[in-house]
Specification:
65 residues; alpha+beta; three-stranded antiparallel beta sheet; 3 strands; 18% helix
Length: 65
């Protein structure tokens, strides 16, 4: 595996979005691409838009704890 993340991405990323299937697919794709989950996901309700927002941090394995 490359020591640097693909496509010039940073070593640490925080993926965010609506809590839906598309978000789950984005996180799954990051894991398939070699990223490691970092910590637990976080949920927050957006009252202005009326839905849950989710965030999941991922890190590149060569720089994980």
């Amino acid at each position: 595996m490359s020591r640097r993340p693909p496509d010039g991405k940073p070593l640490y990323r925080c993926l965010t979005g609506r809590d839906d299937d598309q978000f789950c697919k984005r996180v799954s794709q990051a894991v398939e691409d070699g990223w490691l989950l970092h910590g637990s996901p976080t949920l927050a309700y957006d009252p202005d838009r009326g839905f849950m927002i989710i965030a999941q941090a991922v890190v590149w394995p060569d720089f994980a704890d």
